[in-house]
Amino acid sequence: MVTMEPIVVGEHVLVGVEVKLPKTTLLTINTSKGYIMCGALDVGLLNEKLGDRKIVAARAVGVRTLEQLLHAPMESVTTEAEAMGITVGMTGVEALLKMI
């Protein structure tokens, strides 16, 4: 099952997506410039194989809900996210605010 829901961050309404799969759930919260995602995100692939796309993304591990994703520290970030001031250790909310 796939669900989408509005996620309020500051004064902004973002899109949260939850994909229920067998034995796991994929989570992402998107802005117009980038996104944060659960541990399924392969930051290395985005940086190395898809670097020319300049993808702004950050990853948190060990999260099971969109709410947890908002408050979890980012475990890794893409090169483009780093260029926007997004760093490892920032919460999801902090990272998303820099992506707006």
Report on the structure:
InterPro entries: DUF1805, YunC_sf. It holds the Pfam family DUF1805. The protein is an alpha+beta fold. Helices cover 24% and strands 35% of the residues. It is built from four helices and six strands. A six-stranded mixed beta sheet has the order 1-2-3-4-5-6.
Q: Sketch the major β-sheet.
A: 6 strands, mixed
Percent of residues in helices comes to 10-25%
Distance between the termini: 28 Å
**What's the CATH H-level superfamily name?**
Hypothetical protein YunC
Low-confidence segments, ≥5 residues, pLDDT <50? none
The secondary-structure element order is EEEEHEHEHH
Number of domains: 1
For the residues shown, what is the average pLDDT? Answer: 93
Helix-strand makeup class: alpha+beta
The radius of gyration computed from the alpha-carbon positions, rounded to a whole number of angstroms, is 12 Å
The order of strands across the largest sheet is 1-2-3-4-5-6
- The name of the CATH topology is Hypothetical protein Ta1206 fold
Q: What is the overall shape?
A: globular
CATH class: Alpha Beta
How many helical elements?
Answer: 4
Total strands: the figure is 6
